[in-house]
Fold:
Amino acid sequence: MARAGLDKETVIRKAAELANEIGYDKITLKLLAEHLNVQPPSLYNHIKGIEELQKEIMLFGWRQMDQAMTDAAVCVSGYDALEAICRAFCKYATENPGVFNAMLWYNKFESEETQNATKEMFSIIYKAFTMLNISKENSEHLIRTYRGFLEGFALLVNNNAFGNPVSIEKSFEISLRVLIAGTKALEGEK
Amino acid sequence: MARAGLDKETVIRKAAELANEIGYDKITLKLLAEHLNVQPPSLYNHIKGIEELQKEIMLFGWRQMDQAMTDAAVCVSGYDALEAICRAFCKYATENPGVFNAMLWYNKFESEETQNATKEMFSIIYKAFTMLNISKENSEHLIRTYRGFLEGFALLVNNNAFGNPVSIEKSFEISLRVLIAGTKALEGEK
DNA sequence: TGACAAAACTATTCGAATTAGTTATAATGT
DNA sequence: ACATTATAACTAATTCGAATAGTTTTGTCA
Structure:
């Protein structure tokens, strides 16, 4: 029978890879099984079903994003740190469109696991704000501002929503300038 | 045989309604047919299949969004207009979560139709910028900033991604303050 | 070496989308 | 008013993917 030697981690990594290559919503267990040289039912030894697979792709992505953002913030401080974190987010999201797509649906699977996956990560941004003399309350709100922009911008990029030939990189840089200028206006408040 | 008297518009409106009620990804032709008191194959007299239905829900949403944003901008000017447009976006998106979900995937269906659906609409924001002494080039970039934030923020709200009890309305207001303060910093430039 | 758990398999069921082919209804023109 | 025709519904059947049940093989460990 020539055992394939799969485990959960391998299955998820391959699914993530496939998602980036052919698109998140094109993934089927049949296709994934083919790419792992296995029959579809065999996957059930490692995952409960397609829903769990999707959840695992999402968690996998947020773990990697966490890592990328943390890495970006070492040995940097102030607004430079904030910028570096934002760039890391955008880079990961646009280089992994399939996985990022999965990451957007936190709540399709209500669970503490899901909540914690992102809460932990965005505490990095929170930390950056407190270094900048932004009040605790304003930081809570600002995290949402930044999260909103970052997720939305990456989503639009991944969907080719920006039709015209204007440089996307430049748009991102100007967006950062805008956000940071606006953030500075909140320094020391309340 | 008691004809149901459907037409494309009715089918799409009901699908949009259903999407808002039970969630975009829960929609099936079977379910939609039930709600229209019809057998599933009968729907094919009005739509080509589930993909076209999804595209039509998306276009339907963007048309309504266009209307809501335009309405918000009449008889207002300057930064007030910009704010009003943003609030209208957020309001429609969060009050119509199922339809908004469909609206996010422009490019699942590549077509001029799709591109035009949003291009036309965001020209309202563009117009607002030119009134504010923002250069043409910066306006192009700023539209992307605002689109990114608005779509991302609404997406996060709709997915309950904001775990803590901090007021979402207040977060949105502060976000607008930040964006507008940042936008003012670009006035007159280049 | 024998027993057991893990990981693969085959065969089957289920449900949703879709297609083919048919029939009834409503609108149109004479 | 009646014949014609297009439309909009139907039933029946096919396809495809997910999922389950039950079986066989493989590897590990007492």
